[in-house]
């Protein structure tokens, strides 16, 4: 009886650590994709944003860089683009996005702490099933969302905003908030796929690590 209870507790701990580790990796990959500005620079040319927005490339990059630095907490709390105008609703929206990223930072710290403690605990027991579980989660995530995004990204984009925002400030008027012209929906689709691909690669690497650990234990 006690052995069965102990086994069930181990499974619960494994699952908690796997979820925590997966969450940690997902958030880190989102932040990495956000901070990796060269991806956007490539998109500026690929999507011909300079022509469609009627804004020079230098100005596009300057305002994009500011926006990213702002969302990463490097520009204070008031959103104020270097050269482009912003409406009050536009400023409020970016301030709300900043709050979401700040909340993600807290979740990230907690998941890192839980993951480290759990990994140390399970490593001592030579139990690495959590690595396989984390790999499964990180494989499932990009496959499911990749299919959803591919079928109807616009609908997914709208649902995402309705879940995370209690207003419609995210629906920008290009005349009042021209930044929307340099952030086309195609860019958000590409960066979403970029994040999913990275997660899929990490899932694959975790699976390799898991099998190597099994061979080591044998």
TrEMBL record:
Native source organism of the sequence: Asaccharospora irregularis DSM 2635
UniProt-listed InterPro entries: Lit
Keyword vocabulary terms for this entry: Membrane, Transmembrane, Transmembrane helix
Entries under Pfam families matching the protein: Lit
Protein name, per record: Integral membrane protein TIGR01906
Highest taxon of source: Bacteria
The keyword Metal-binding belongs to this UniProt entry's keyword annotation: no
Keyword Transmembrane: yes
Record-annotated membrane-spanning stretches: 12-36, 100-123, 135-153, 187-210
